[in-house]
Amino acid sequence: MHTDTEVAIHARGLTKSFGGTRVLAGVDLAVPTGSLLALLGPNGSGKTTTVRILTTLLAADSGTATVAGHDVAREPVAVRRAIGLTAQQATVDDLLTGRENLELFSGLYHVGRREARRRTAELLDRFGLGDAADRRVSTYSGGMRRRLDLAASMVAAPRILFLDEPTTGLDPRSRAELWTVIRELLASGTTILLTTQYLEEADQLAARIAVINGGRIVAEDAPDVLKRQIGSERLTLRLSSAADLSHAGAVLSAGGDGGLHLDAGRCELTLALQDPDHLRRALDLLHGAAIAVERVELRTPTLDDVFFELTAAA
């Protein structure tokens, strides 16, 4: 158990409904100070709603939450002073230069003019935007815009940073560059709550991962622990005929195999191996059903496997 001083973000029993739709059904979270927690879940699972409650942009129907030791409902101003937020949509102004954007945000945070100039220059350099500082943001690439957006969230040097799908829409190079910046922020002691739709991103950056589904946290642990919890090796079978895929799934399910994942695009099915003889049993079942297997692959579990298994039932 963590003490209050060790936990930067703490939520207990958060619920939220919109009309007759319940989005959060009792979310519990604890993010230790100086760590990065990745929040994973399908679209509509409650990731962004959780972030909006924790950043005081939305009120929970019930439950409690503290950020930097401040209650988000009773002390919203204190919470906002302690945090930075990078939302899914960039908040920078295309008509201003990168430098002008950061100086504008400094004014919003009531940073003095001299300190604002110093902080702006520091952030532009830190986020690799020094050479483009005096260009309009409308000329920036997607990766540059996201780095500027992240820099804007750091103007007031927040202790806690919320990143809501910060790399959505970026190309692989830009995503990798942003990962480097996030690692540097983490190394400097910043606490980070990251929501992402990229499982590799969570695997690369997070010390712990929480999986949300149906408005509840259904699993939380270190990435390697989550992978081990869902089984040992994964068996992927590529079939010779796409027409056999559904039949193969039915044959293996009838044989006691649960948690099958069918990939129609690749004409593959994947299952967790339960024991050393499982591979032979699966192949025998398919052979008996006259289903031809083109390729057999064994591998260790990935976060994709964790995600599919934990979010299978919406």
UniProtKB/TrEMBL annotation:
Superkingdom in the source lineage: Bacteria
GO biological process, one term: doxorubicin transport
Record InterPro entries: AAA+_ATPase, ABC_transporter-like_ATP-bd, ABC_transporter-like_CS, ABC_transporter_ATP-binding, DrrA, P-loop_NTPase
Keywords, comma-separated and alphabetical: Antibiotic resistance, ATP-binding, Cell membrane, Membrane, Nucleotide-binding, Translocase, Transport
Chief place where the protein resides: membrane
Domain ABC transporter: 9-239
GO CC annotation terms, alphabetical: plasma membrane
Location in the cell: Cell membrane
Keyword RNA-binding: no
Membrane topology reported for the UniProt record: Peripheral membrane protein
Pfam family, one: ABC_tran
SMART domains: AAA
One GO molecular-function entry: ATP binding
Protein family per UniProt: Belongs to the ABC transporter superfamily. Drug exporter-1 (DrugE1) (TC 3.A.1.105) family.
Descriptive protein name: ABC-2 type transport system ATP-binding protein
